[in-house]
């Protein structure tokens, strides 16, 4: 372990961690900040698509994290600081006491990604997801149900935003995704490779529960307010999740889990 | 409408709305604070189990909210204030510009509640849910899938906490629930009335997806960390949500949606 004690919040060696709340909002060329033990564990694991660059932790967390930290490459600096110095660096009280700086993977090309998928595959396509909790939830659910990856349209928020990573419990660091794909191009590329593209929308007359999934299936999800654009829905097989009681409102990440469970776990319908 | 202009943050008539962030944490005898248009709409609707007591909104929101406000009882004061005064009263920037004070319904007795249920009913039992986002999500999903209500054990957090209400998109104000029920008493009371009690747990060998639900079914959910206690699971029919990819982690509210969808929408298995 490359341990580096830090006692001064102005220490230049930890400038990447300074005021992370503000910096998160402005983005950072090819890098991201992650927080918490669960996420650090993913970042240090072979499953991660991202490279750890540096770590900053509270002194008191060192022993409990030793097994994770020892799995980091030798050259990754592990800065340790008293909690108050850590809080001063981060710009807020960091009760988890764990920050990591990572490098994002190279962007994935849509065609190359799709061409590399197996005969049986489930994908999640997300359009207009601007809320980081929802983005994190989509990644968590995609990973939990073994989806091959996610396709994000050009209006989606960054899955490498600190909160999205945290809500994803690290899935954002390991599950492949393609960014910046227009919905129409998404549908076209998927259909060209034999995917059945399902549009999840409350307006559909067909129910998800009655679907017999094709070997290659993609589900398209829109944002909670406007949902998917009518012209996108028109190019897909629209499906609704049946609800009752006059309260037809599901969170978009929740919707992904209900659909993915049906696609991957409900056999022999 | 009983419109009352407010221009002074020290105005005693709006003291119930003062520093709501702090007060939320300490609780408030029989009252709760709700925020946002969607929740206000539920509070003002016949479906609400709660009584509106007072409203405080930003001046600029008045016209857009007129249809909701006119549905409130005549004696409910509608305080209107400039945005900066509103922010000063609330103690933080209230970008939604809408706060409502409501009165909680009378507590519901477990036996009385269960005895009033129809022959076909689905219930959600929650044990140890301490996170308000998750509590709100459980209510939202219970309402969306037409569950008859929720049973909360004595270690659950308050569903009338501001954030829980917001995440529930108002379901916390309309869906019946019984509080403070020990898990063992919950299982006993449910079984006595012919409910099959399912314990959702990753440790189960039986998969949710293969279940043929009984006419009366309750699903029990534990907190994300420790989950349900082994002695509770032992008294129920344990079911797992099948996951794959070595990432077996679902949010507890998400779990409720997957289970409720299976119980209420998947027919003819």
Characterise the protein shown here.
2 copies of one chain form a homodimer. Chain A is an alpha/beta fold and 269 residues long. Chain A folds into 2 domains: 2-103, Ribosomal protein L30/S12 (60s Ribosomal Protein L30, Chain: A); 110-265, Alpha/beta knot, CATH 3.40.1280.10. Chain A has 11 helices and 11 strands. In chain A, the strands form 2 sheets. A 6-stranded parallel β-sheet of chain A has the order 8-7-6-10-9-11, sandwiched between helices. A 5-stranded mixed β-sheet of chain A has the order 1-4-3-5-2. The N and C termini of chain A lie far apart (53 Å). Chains A, B: It comes from Brevundimonas bullata. Chains A, B: This is tRNA G18 (Ribose-2'-O)-methylase SpoU. Chains A, B: Pfam families: SpoU_methylase.
Strand fraction of chain A equals 15-25%
The number of domains of chain A: 2
Q: What is the SS-derived class of chain A?
A: alpha/beta
CATH domain fold name of the largest domain in chain A: Alpha/beta knot
DSSP summary: helix tally of chain A: 11
Characterize the overall form of chain A.
Answer: elongated
- At CATH level 2, the architecture of the largest domain in chain A is 3-Layer(aba) Sandwich
InterPro entries (chains A, B): Alpha/beta_knot_MTases (IPR029028), Ribosomal_eL30-like_sf (IPR029064), rRNA_Methyltransferase (IPR051259), SpoU_MeTrfase (IPR001537), tRNA_m1G_MTases_N (IPR029026)
Protein name (chains A, B): tRNA G18 (Ribose-2'-O)-methylase SpoU
Domain tRNA/rRNA methyltransferase SpoU type (chains A, B): 124-261
GO molecular function (chains A, B): RNA binding; RNA methyltransferase activity
């Amino acid at each position: 372990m490359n341990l580096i004690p830090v006692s001064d919040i102005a220490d230049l060696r930890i400038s990447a961690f300074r005021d992370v709340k503000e910096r998160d909002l402005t983005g950072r060329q090819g890098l991201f900040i992650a927080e918490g033990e669960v996420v650090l564990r993913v970042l240090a694991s072979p499953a991660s698509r991202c490279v750890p660059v540096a770590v900053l932790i509270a002194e008191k967390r060192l022993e409990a994290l030793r097994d994770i930290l020892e799995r980091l490459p030798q050259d990754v600096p592990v800065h340790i600081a008293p909690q108050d110095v850590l809080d001063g660096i981060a710009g807020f009280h960091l009760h988890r006491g764990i920050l990591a700086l990572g490098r994002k993977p190279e962007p994935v090309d849509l065609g190359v990604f799709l061409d590399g998928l197996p005969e049986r595959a489930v994908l999640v396509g997300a359009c207009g997801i601007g809320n980081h909790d929802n983005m994190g939830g989509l990644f968590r659910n995609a990973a939990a149900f073994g989806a091959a990856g996610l396709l994000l349209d050009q209006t989606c928020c960054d899955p490498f935003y600190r909160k999205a990573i945290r809500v994803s419990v690290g899935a954002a660091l390991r599950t492949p995704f393609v960014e910046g794909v227009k919905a129409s191009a998404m549908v076209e590329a998927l259909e060209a490779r034999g995917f059945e593209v399902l549009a999840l929308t409350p307006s559909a007359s067909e129910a998800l529960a009655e679907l017999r999934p094709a070997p290659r299936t993609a589900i398209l999800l829109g944002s909670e307010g406007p949902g998917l654009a009518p012209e996108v829905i028109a190019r897909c097989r629209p499906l609704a999740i049946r609800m009752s009681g006059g309260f037809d409102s599901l969170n978009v990440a929740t919707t992904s889990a209900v659909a993915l469970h049906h696609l991957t776990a409900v056999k022999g319908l």
